[in-house]
Amino acid sequence: MNTSAIDAGAGAQQPAGQKAAHWSGVFAMTLCVFALIASEFMPVSLLSPMAAELHVTEGMAGRGIAISGAFAVVTSLFVSALAGRLNRKTLLLGLTAMMALSGATIALAPGYFTYMFGRALIGVVVGGFWSMSAATAMRLVPAAQVPRALAVFNAGNALATVVAAPLGAYLGSVIGWRGAFFCLVPVAFVAFVWQWVSLPSMPTTERGAASGNVFRLFRNRAVALGLLGVGVFFMGQFTLFTYVRPFLETATRMDVPAITLVLLVIGVTGFAGTMLIGAVLKRGFYATLIAIPLLMAAIAVALIAFGGRTAIVVALLGFWGLVSTAAPVGWWAWVPRTFPHEAEAGGGLMVAMIQLSIALGSTAGGLLFDRYGHQGAFAASAAMLLAAAALVFLTSRSEAGEA
After folding, report:
1. What CA–CA distance (Å, rounded) separates 128 from 116?
2. N or C: which end of the chain has fewer CB within 10 A?
3. Element (DSSP H or E) covering residue 184
4. How far is the C-alpha of 248 from the C-alpha of 251, rounded, in Å?
5. What is the pLDDT of residues 271-294, one digit of tens each?
6. Do residues 106 and 115 touch, judged by C-beta distance below 8 A?
7. How far apart (Å, rounded) are the C-alpha atoms in residues 297 and 382?
């Protein structure tokens, strides 16, 4: 892996003379990631009781996920400019406090409007936090350890993905959906205190913070191709993954306990993938980013062919979890590599592209699944993933041409 750009970026971001790695700060932010992802997707396992108590349909309750995504997109694009010269430690602490406020607002919501307001707050946190994650990692650890720090961040993401849905369902059955959301508040408080103690002061030095025009970065061919590759990749991933449960119910004929076990397998293998991908990226950065969508496309085709064979489906989805959950680690390592002096602006574009692509992929997958069954949705996913691999290849060629 060519780390020269990362080295340059880290040097630009870190205060002069700073050599020590702030790993306690990295782990504090990882706890924040865990609470953030759990907060973002908690409604998935609690829609029915929430809808009943708020006197709305499950579809209306589910729009709480859509509104958080919409606010995440807007925030990710403009948080760097809006924050201006505000110390990034102060900004991260403010976002963590907003996450706690979101959990409390939803737990105490007297009606649907207040619930949606609480979901909008968590969307702001998602967009702001992830936009700054790469830039913050560059300032917390030495350049050579930035990919490892980003992998640790994504481990919190993967762990939350594993436990959020089943834990939310369990807590909802024991203490109610409001109690489940209240449980996120003390976790956010612990993350706030830990970050306050462990994060160094991080005054902003990024040129992009002053200009505010993040879209100017698209003038660079490698940036435009890379971000398009990111978008098509996540569209392909969520065109399939969003509809894994109905696929397992209709094609593989699994009952709910078996489906829960399969989802747990995907989560566990995904967690393992985030731990392993750092070493793989060092051996071949772009080769890894190309191989991941190619492997996922092959899995999508295999699921169409062997959808009725339980053992094969479980193995395929376990492998899907291993590579798909690890992919964001590579793409977040691409941010400091590509935007060494404007990691916040680049991170904002990355978050916006991912959130939009997840929404588009989920929508496209739903339309295809309803009309053509899982075969149509999974075939489209495979095609998108192949296109993503081609775009990543073109990105690597473009970057090599500019070097």
Report:
1. 19
2. C
3. helix 184-198
4. 6
5. 888 888 888 988 899 999 999 999
6. yes
7. 4
